[in-house]
Each structure stands twice: as structure tokens, then as C-alpha cells.
Amino acid sequence: MKKLLIPISSLFVFSIANAQVTSTENYIQSRIYLEPVTISSSTAKQIETVQYFDGLGRAKQVVNVKASPTGKDVVSHIEYDGFGRQVDSWLPAPMNTLNGGIQAGVKSSATTYYGDNFAFGHSNLEASPLDRVLSQIQPGTDWQAHPVTFNYDANVDGEVKKFTATFNYTTFESQLSLSPSYGSAQLYKNTATDEDGNTTIELRNGEGRILLIRKVISATENADTYYVYNDYDQLAYVIPPLAADAVKNLTAGVFPDLTLNNLCYQYKYDGRNRLVEKKLPGKDWEYMVYDKADRLVATQDANLRSDSKWLFTKYDKFGRILYTGISIDNGDRNAVQEWITNTYGTNIETAGTYTQSGLQIYYANTAYPQNIESILSVNYYDTYPAGTPGFTPEFPGNTLLTDDSSLNVSTKSLPVASYVKNIEDDNWTKNYTWYDQKGRAVGSHSINHLGGYTKTESELDFSGTPQKVYTYHLRKEGESGIAVKERFVYDAQNRLWQHYHQVDNNTEELLAENSYDELSQLTNKKVGNNLQSIDYTYNIRGWMTHINKDQMALGNLGGKLFSYNIKYNQKEGIENPDQVQFSGKNVKAKYNGNIAEVDWRAVETLGVNPSSTPKRYGYAYDNLNRLTAGYYQNPDNPYSKENTESLDYDLNGNITNLYRTSVISYGNNKATVIDDLTYTYAEGGNKLTGIIDISQNQTGYEGYPLFMIPYDLNGNMLSMDGKGISSIQYNFLNLPNKINIDFDLYYPFTASHTYRADGSKLRKNTVSTVSGFVNSTVTTEVTDYLDGFQYKNTKMEVLGYGGGPIAGELSFAESGTSRAMEIEAFSLEDLIEPSDPRIIDPIGGIIAISKTQDLQFFPTAEGFYDYQKDQYIYQYKDHLGNARVSYGRNSLGVLEITDANDYYPFGMNHLKTGNAFFGGSYKDYKYNGKELQESGMYDYGARFYMPDIGRWGVVDPLAEQYRRWSPYNYAVNNPIFFTDPDGMSVNGWIKDKKTSDVTWDNNINSKKELGLSDKAATHTYVSNSDDPTAYTLPNGSGTIYMNSWEEYDIENGLGGSSINMEFVPNNENAQSGWFQTYTSNVPDYNGKESGNVVSAKEERLDGTSSQGSKDVKKAEYFDTPKSNILADIPTRESVQGSDVNWNAKSSMIINGKKSFSVTWGFTIKNENTIKYNPPKITNKTTIFHESAIKNLPKK
């Protein structure tokens, strides 16, 4: 919307200093004002940066003026060797402010501040014009003897198998075959070895395409992933390690069909280079059809195909998604594609009206398809649809845009409403969005499927930072609503200082008050009006090492409830409790970012001090960074082997054996083997078909080995009869909408789920029956999930027949039957919570029921609000987001502990009383902060996780990003470092740049893998692709829409990592071009290095022509030889040693759409010229370029 999007901040570059910059130096001074100004001001609230340059135009110092909490400058020193290469990367140092003037003695200040003579990273470069990195040493004395090393070579004869893909376009059949191996020196071979000696080998052909990624497990075993291309250089097959191992003795011939279909990724393309068919391991073929504009209009998986159904998407003339749904079409893919191509022309949906799925839709239904079974979602732009509710601003300063396009500013081009249908019925959730005069979303109104609504409004300051947020929620008409007010206070650099929270007319609560160190790292958080004061400590790498460090040695923890110590490169506990039983699984100090040990002490009962010796877990890993053992070390006897997990894997990361112990008799530390599991898989694939428990102990994994585990065509587990899960039904999103559990004849249980078409769970309906000798009791519980507000309604019905034990005499934990319920999650004392007013007769009847409100709780930034008790619940969480200690003030204002948990490495609770139960409580949210289900599984959103066996039950929706791993594995088998926030992709943990809280980032922890830290003055975008955030560029020339951070393997000959962005101009002078720059990480665009916008007509695709070529295969960098083609983008899949300047540009075409990576700041120039002044490559770029592809887990 050209006439609307107004920048929320301005960037001024001065040639004359207004502050105390050093005028004898070359410099660029930038200010990002955080409050409105009319003229340049040095006193206004702002973020100011001064960058100084030497006589050659190279940056030599960056001064972040008064950036520390105490007003000190945070200064980064940059220096070069005799060849102009930056080999040392110094960490930034806080120094007394000179108001922007150049600082002297930065290196000594950094050494003093960090207390380490090695407050810098160092790269050893090759003595050749290639300047290739030979080794990298990260900051800190402890890392000086543990470099990351690189080697550049060529393959030897017979080292790499040669696979060939052939495709017949007449029959549309593809074949994979094996030819004699590559001869000597035919492939480029690059080897990287990380700080702990783990080696990755990458082999590429002369075109730069990756053919093999080899992870070295031992001297005799490798995990090989092969990439096979067809005659058109399109990725046709990916052969994961288990499949590669299955054909290791095959020297020539056709690839075995069984291995191909069970383990490999297969892709087919049409004549327009569009991916039209694909098959993932564990799933049947999936089809895709397109319109003439190459827009994906329909997809079909195997389950949909059995019913002749397709998922479709309709677009307007601007390519915006208008609505989606399910259509009926009996034709095969070719027939459907031909029909769309020949019949629907531009295939653009237009305005109109018709009714479908119980909703009036304001589109004409003219585009493909027209034979619609149901509509799933509808989007409206520009103009609010009929029936839009009114919106009265809560904050007087919010002047809302209207949809009157005749005004100077309006909602034209903005999304204004979206409707999403329930999958299981025709009820809808209707969402409306309101904008202020700057085009910023400030209000929303969501009408839920029950007829209630949630209204949210934000008061934003000049920079777009929320100052206040108001939420009003009503489940349905006729009930009382609830109002939540939040207030935020920031410091001079917009770091969050205080967060206030108020429910209805209750007293306002100070949820959190934050303190930061000079590097803006969160060092203390006071929660609940200082109910607890939580300290955080970091090492020189910026990795969190302690929570409440100083209290660990105090008997009563100094009044605190939890102390936690993460140890990376230190090991204080035992190496191995039993070298014979756990041979080769030793705890060692780790330097590559893996965690060697964690210590903790927790107060679980007030007035009872924990053991003075911390509890401890020591972790062992293999050379693929997979967790092989977690040894719990009892404070009294670390060799007791209690609460231990030990695992073995196949080459794809499928667990083959799991050994688990616990303490069954409380009060001693004698370990009992509760699980000794052996896993079996279907036909050498990834599908788990059975588990045998040699221990025959029903305490841990409660299953019998007599039952096979079946799957549907999409790879979804349909039952687990050995655990009593008799059936699981799925919707088209592969989400379980009904689970039947038969504990035995007398205890059937059913959980039904209602989902929206976007995958959000709206309702859980459980029905359980307990049969007694006199009668039976049927309990129905309905849990509603509405915008974070969680409700529960329970009804009991006594039936007049018996036939089983007396209900009150049986605890599920004591039952000898096979069941899904975990003892960790269900015990008799938890069947009725102490606060529950119900009184139940021992034979299953109800004596009395007192009326209670259904609303149970809703989340806050620091835990939950218990609506039943009007109580704020705060939580100590570990680095994985696991709830460890929950606490709050009771009705008397006194501190109380409400829940405490310890976990096995793969997420099962330690077995102890009082640490878990069901009943619609916030206490169900435990491991990774996810909700524990009655089935013993955790609901992550996209999938349900089974912590007792360490696996998912369905294929990863993003399996193609993790091709070297089983699509059923959890957290790439390293649950101590990674978590899976939504069941689709693993995340690494970082610090939030505004609050400095430790959170998770979908760039797989770049600090850990790339050797960077938050002290490197870089930042990371974490964007939600489902809800893109608009970032307005300086100088008012356009808006950047952040879509998502993507990591992917070779796709059509392309691969790597990118942040997908879109540039929308807001005036006629701005050219809608594509641009990118590179460095080590992804910082905020404000106040960083300038990049360039290249207008479309000047984009050089072939590196020579001003007009550019349309042939993607000719694309290359401006500064690289023509042999480095498009596939060699300098990211995760980069060519070793490629010289990449900061303004190097490479466009990528992914599925017909243009994407690009941006890893530094940018400025938009309102002119149609390219201004390049490329500096030399920096060490940070080298780290990202050379190290990332070797150290990061490959997807």
C-alpha cells in the first residue's frame, strides 16, 4: 500500500557531527529515534551508533553510544593483518562514554571486562590468494586448545558411490541406479572437524552441487547422505544414511525398491521445472498441481487420494491467498493439471458472493476448483467484510484506519479479516485486525466458534514498541468476561525493565522487573513483586551457565527455590557409573556447545532444605552429537545408576534400545530397571512396529510386545495395543482427533479433539468409565482452549450396573493392566484435586456437586494465572523450558510451592509423588512447557510426543528439512540441547534481544554452532511465518516483510539458509528490487552496516550484463568466478573459501519464487543507481561461511 506504510523510525546519516564524534576520523553516525523529534537531537531517546573507518575505507571501530544500562559506550574493535584480512574478532567492551568519540584502549578494556586474555576469536587463513580458513579458535582461554579445523582436498578412487537418476517423461517414471564409483580427483572434498573432534566431510561435483555429506562415526562407520540429480540438475533423490548403508555392498545396478520406498526421498518435476510429485520416507506419494502463473493451487496426500479429495488454494490478481478448502475431483494428477491449464486461464478469483460450509463468502467461486466440499479458511483484504463488529479503542491515542480508499490513508492492501473453520464441524473463528494511522496493527477482535470473543488492543509508542496491552475475553454469550491489562516500562535503549499485569479490578501485579549487565544480558529478574529474585550468569561465549549461582552452596538456597548450573566444558561428576554396562558412553567436557553436565538443587516443600550436594545429570554423546546416555547422580551415591537413560540408535537416528532405571521404593536410592526396550522397525524403515521390554516392569513403558503397531498411508500411527491405545483417528492435518484407550474391560477411555483448519486445538472431550460391583460411573470432561484461556467442565453420570472392582479401591498406578497412563502422570490421589468441591462415593456415585466456574487458568509471561484461586503462578524453568518449580502467593499472601518436577533426558518425569496430575490444571504443562495428555503423550501442536519411548507417532511435517534423520525422531536425538517448539522443527536457545530472556531460535543456535555470542553485537530475527511482522525501513522508502528463517537441503540444485523477505515500496521513487548482504549472524537492521537496494532493471543475474539474464543457471556473485554458480550461496551449503563481500548478492529461485538471505543491516536509497563500496571479507563472515555447513546439524 504505497500511500499508507509510514516508517516508525528514521535513520539519519550526518556529515557533520552533532555529538562528540571525532571529526578527524572518517565515520558514519546513525541515530534511530525512539521518540518523535522535529530536528536532530542528542538528548532524545535514541539508539546511536558511530562507525569509524581507516584510510582505506575499512571499518576499524564501532561505537554503540551509551548503549549499556549504565550509559557506557559498547565498543567493538576491528583490526586487519598485513594482507588486509580480519583474522581476530574482538568481543565488544563497555567503556566510559565519549558521546560517540573514538575510543582508545579497546582491546585492554575487553580483556579486563571479560577477565580473559583471549577476548577475541582467531582465524588461521591459508597462505594463498584463496584466503581459505584452516582453523578457527573461539574466544576464551578454555577454547584455545580446541579449534575448529578445515581441510580442502579431492576424493580418492572408490570413496564416493555414483548414483544416477533417469526419468521418462512419457511414462512419468523415474529410476535410481548405481554406477561404478567416482574416480580419483573428480570431486571437491572439504572436511571440517569441530572442537570435540567430530568430523563432517562434504563432497561436491564440478558444478558445486553437493553429492555426499558424510558424518564420521568411527574409523569403520560413517553416516552418509547422498544427493542425486536428474538430467536437468533437479534434485531427484535423497538417500539418507540408513538407506546408504543398505546398499553399501552394491557396486552397480538398480537401487532396491524396498529400500527406496521405505527410506529415501523421491521427487518428480514437470516440463516447467515445477515439483509435482514427491514421496517422503514413511508416506505414500503426494501430488501438486499449479495454474498458469505457477501458483500452487491444489495438493493431495495419500489419505485424501483415497477419497478423491484435494486441498486447494485460491488467489486474487495480486497473488494473495483468498480462501482454501477441500474439493472433490476423481481425476488423477495429470488429468487435474491438464484441466486447470486448459480451462481456467489466469485462474484469478473475483468478488462475488455464495454460501458454503455455513458461511457467506464474498468471492465468486470462478477459479479452480468449483466442486467444493468445504471451505477451510477465508481471507479479506482492503475492505472489511459485511458483519464486521465495531471496534472502540480502549486507548484514546489509537486513531484507526478506515477502509475508505478515497482517503489519503486507508486499509487498502492490508489484510483486514480472516475466517478459519473447525475441521470437525462447520463452526468458525472470525478474526479482524485494526490498524493505526501508520499502518501498524494495534487491535484485533476474534470471534470464537462458541460465539464469544477475544478483543486485544495495543498502545504503541513512536518506535512501535507496545506500552500497554488490553485484552478482554468472553467464552460465550451469557457468561462473565475477563479483562487483562498489561503495562510495560523500558529503559533508555528500549530494554524491558518492568512488566505489570492486572486481571479485572484486582490489584496490579508486577510480573517481572529486569536488570542487565553492560552487554545487555539479563542478569536478574524479580518476579511477583519480588516474590523471587532470579539471577542469571553467562560465560565468555554468551552461553547461560547458572540460575541463582550464589545460592547453590547455601543450605536453604538463601530463600530461593531453585539453583541450576549448566556445564559445557567442565565435568565435575563421574565419567561412567558402569564401564562394562555402558561401554564407550562416557561423560566428557564439551567445547562444541553440547552440555556435559547440569547440577540443580530445588526446594520442593517449604521448610525442608534440599540435600546440600546438588543433584546432577552427566551426559554422553556419540560423534553425531546424539545423546547416548544421561546418568543421574544421586547426591549420596552418584554410582547408584538411578533415573538413568541409555540409548542406542541406527544410522537414521531411530532408537534401537532404551535402558531406563528408577527408584520404586521411596526413601532409598536403589535403582530398579523399569525399561530395557528393544525396538523393531518395518522392513528396515523408520516405522516402529513393536517394542519388547526385557525388564517386564510395568512402571516405565507400560506395553506388551504381542501387538504390531500399524500406520496409515501418511505414516500416522493408528494404534499401540501393547499400551492399551486401541485406535487413533486423524484429520487431514494428521492431527489426532480421536484416541481410544482400553485400560482393560472395565476402564475404557476416549479423548476426542476439535481443531481449527490452521491446526489450533479448540476442544478436548474425554469420556472415561469406571465400573464397580454396584454401578459404573461415566465421567465426561470438556476442555476448551480459547486464545490461551483454558476451561474445563466435568459431568459424572452413575449407571446402574456393575461388573468390576470398586472404583475407589483401584489406582491406575497399581493396576497390573497394560495402559497408556503413565505413573508419572496419574495416581489415585490425583483423581480428585484437594480444591475440587466434588465428593465421590467409593462405589462410584456422586454425593454432592457444588457449582464452579469453568475457566481454570491462562498463561502470563512468567507462568500462569489460576483463575479459580485468583493466584499468579510463577515458574522456574531450565534451559529447555521445562517447568521445574511452580510457586505463588496463597490467599494469605504467603509463598507456596504448587508443583515440582525432575525429568529424564527424553522428557519422562522422575517417578515421585505429587509432581503431576490431570484435571485441567496448569500443572499439566511440564516438559518443554507442553501439555501432558491422558495418553501419556505431550501435545506439541503439530504432533504428539511419547517421552517414554522418545519418538513421535507421525511423520515430521517438515521432514525435508531433516533428511538425514528419521522423520519420527525427537530433537535430532539431542534433547539436552534442542527442543521442538511445535512438533515440526528443532530450535536452539538464545537470549531475547529485548528482554534478554533465554529463549529458542529456529536458526539452530548460531552462537553455539558458529562460535558467536551475544557479545558480538549481532542480533537474530525470530519471525513467525504464519504471522509476518512488518519492519519499516529508514527514509520512508519501503517496508520489509519478514517471512521466515528457512534452512533446507538441496532443492532443484539450490540449498542453504535464508531469511525470506519481501520489499514493498511506499512511494514511486523506491524501486522494488532484491538485495542481500552477508555476515556471521542476523542482526537488527537498525544502526548496522549499510547494504544496497538493487532495482529490478539493474539486477545482475549473470554478473556482467546491466540488464541481467533471465536464465537462473547463469546467476552468480558479483565477486566470484563463474564456476561458482547459483548453488554456491555462502550459507549452510557454501563452497569452501569462496570470497564473499558484504554486499555480495545471490538470488535464489525456490519453487518459482525469489528468495534471498539477509544477514546484516540495510538502507534504502531513493535512486535508481547501485552504490558499491565493498569492504574486505570479515572474520565473522568467514565463520558463517566456512563453519556453519560443517558444524550445524544438516537438514
Describe it:
By secondary structure, the protein is mainly β. The chain has five domains: 104 residues, no CATH class; 105 residues, no CATH class; 102 residues, no CATH class; 494 residues, no CATH class; 177 residues, no CATH class. The chain contains seven helices and 70 strands. The strands form ten sheets. The chain has a 35-stranded antiparallel sheet, with helices on both faces. Strands 47-48-49-50-51-52-55-56-57-58-59 form an eleven-stranded antiparallel sheet, with no helix packed on it. A hairpin with a 7-residue loop joins strand 32 and strand 33. The N terminus and C terminus are likely disordered.
Structural class: mainly beta
**Averaging pLDDT over every residue, what do you get?**
80
Distance between the termini: 37 Å
User: Percentage of helical residues?
Assistant: under 10%
Q: Provide the number of structural domains.
A: 5
Low-confidence stretches: 1-18, 802-852, 913-919, 989-1195
Strand content: 35-45%
Largest sheet: 35 strands, antiparallel
The general outline is: globular
